[in-house]
# Entry
Amino acid sequence: MADPISSVAPKLYTPIDEPPPPSPKTPKTVEAKKPAVNLDAAPAPTGGINPAAAYLMAKPSAATTSTTVTTGTSSTDAKMSLNVGSWPIGMLEREGDALRLRMMKDPSGTTGADKQKLADIEGELSKRYEAIPKLAPVTSEKKGVELCERPADIIVVRDLGIPHRWLKTTTKEAGMGIAGGKIPGHDDKDGPSSGGFLGKTELVDHTGESNLVESVCTPRPDLDEDCVDKELAIGKPEGRWFPALNDCHVVVADIEEKCSKTAGAP
# Structure
């Protein structure tokens, strides 16, 4: 039966079973141009693979190459480690220290290339160090014993012209002085460093006294230097000062007797 509305009224709707009419002003779709691919450089495709796709799959990206070099797993990094022979020694030391520190902090991230590079650096450093001229070992050549003396600025002793005496070896310079470490004979009024008669004495360090203008030192090859060094024990008590009986001359004479190379000879 015919639709009474459709036969009388204008057609205001489209039945569901009919397709919609085309739009009068539909814009044309323009397909974007794809970048050209150099198919000559691409590897020959196999099977049904598109030539361009096969080329892109075979060519490594720049990012991949950069990452490989950074992590030290590429052959480029391995070749770089072989050129350490041209590095300055300071650069070798810095790079070696930095690489060891990184390997210590992150052992799991250490690669075979890291280990090889460190081995190359250490090997090169070893060669550089061996090439450095070796300095001759410093030896303390013994110069022998010297008897030193200078004017003693002490009342009576000065007037009599009796000098102050001490002994000097390669490593020591010492003689009698006032207890407490003061060198006698410098502006004394009553005795060794104003200690006076019967003042306490000891062996005092005289380092530098032999360099004074008024000092005179005479070599004593007849004395054993090792023995004299042992006897010149700084701080050793030497009793109370009494001129001619227990003074600097007596102390030196006692050491000379003990350390004479001819002591005990017939």
